[in-house]
Amino acid sequence: xxASMPKDQEFLxxxxxxxxxxxxxxxxxxxxxxxxxxxxxxxxxxxxxxxLYWCTHKPHRIGIGIAWAIGIFAxxxxxxxxxxxxxxxxxxxxxxxxxHRRVQMFDVREQSMQVFPLLLISYSAYVVVHxxxxxxxxxxxxxGSATSALLWAPMTxxxxxxxxxxxxxxxx
Amino acid sequence: xxxxxxxxxxxxxxxxxxxxxxxALLSLLLLFxxxxxxxxxxxxxVISIVVQPLQRLTTMPGVVWHEVSGYFETQSNLIRDNAxxxxxxxxxxxxxxxxxxLQAENAQLRKLLxxxxxADYPMQLAEIVYIERDIFRRKVFVNKxxxxxxxxxxxxxxxxxxxxxxxxxxxxxSEITLITDKDHAVPIQILRTGLRAVVFGSGDISxxxxxxxxxxxxxxxxxxLVTSGLDGTYPPGxxxxxxxxxxxxxxYPFARISCVPIAGVDQQRQLLIxxxxxxxxxxxxxxxxxxxxxxxxxxxxxx
Lengths: 172, 303
Prior knowledge:
The complex is a heterodimer of chains A (172) and B (303). By secondary structure, chain A is mostly helical.
């Protein structure tokens, strides 16, 4: 057990529900930024990233059900069909929950490589639904999964920093 | 590490696989119902009441930037714009004088011919709030909804031509499908020859396709396509697109014709929603003989 523990295992504050929901809300707002053209294709899916973070770090708090509910919100906001984002986030959350021990074994940079296939599968779920209904695939949509994977490390570091206690625990 | 013991001391509900199957099936069911039957529009409207203020919030930085840059607009720019607008106004005024005469004359002629009056539709101005973030589709949202009597199917245009039509209405917002959307078609007429056709969106911002036109059809680059009004949705005579390229390849039955939209489909901020289109008379019901004939034909076609 000790061998598999990361060397820089650190003490983190217990996560409150408010913090989780606030992080998800911010991610949703970031997703709704008005972009278009190539920027829209390159835009990382912030919600998918934050969901995956919580699914891997707190798999018993945030799971498939919550991912599905957030997907429904995303569907309304994007005017996509009901269940399109929901399906994609459900698949993502399942991957996150199943692989949470494996992902946590790696350090942040290596985690990106572990996370990328999960994001790719979730993006594919979205595209397959679209293809089935409209017989039409926009390949540049997959660019988003790559930028999302690149953003995994900065986002994890940011959330870990926010979860750290404010004062130095070694200070007397 | 987190509380991830491998023993199941506590009952944590159904396993992830069971949850995945349940929620995936639920999503697929919703997808099926939404795509086929459109039963879920009311629940979408309810959720949108929560979602939309948040969405508005995300456009705030852009709006503030727009306002601030507008405030610091240099005076020389304003003077130049003003001069250009004045000139345009003078030109337009001269043309308007003619228009009034023509309108009166047209009304007179129509009265003589006993034809129903067309044109002159009430319009309302709407502003684009945000554009679709789904790269698969070409849609925009404007700030007028069912509270301002916007209805599904109303036509949206800008000062130069057709932009799209209203496809979904929320209390304070409505969704507009642009004519460049992949699934969108506009019945048109070629202004020069009067030839009727249908122009399809291509999913690309500045491209429309005129499909199913025989190679021999009389179309030239630069031809203007106007709405034919035959669908009962688009009023007749509004400019839609301009032909830019025609490929006539004898190997294919149809010519490949690409057009560009005339209206600034992706550039405008203000759009006009046209309301109060005249109702077309109902098409006459098929007589029994006709439908019987059709049924017989269908039967014959079936192997």
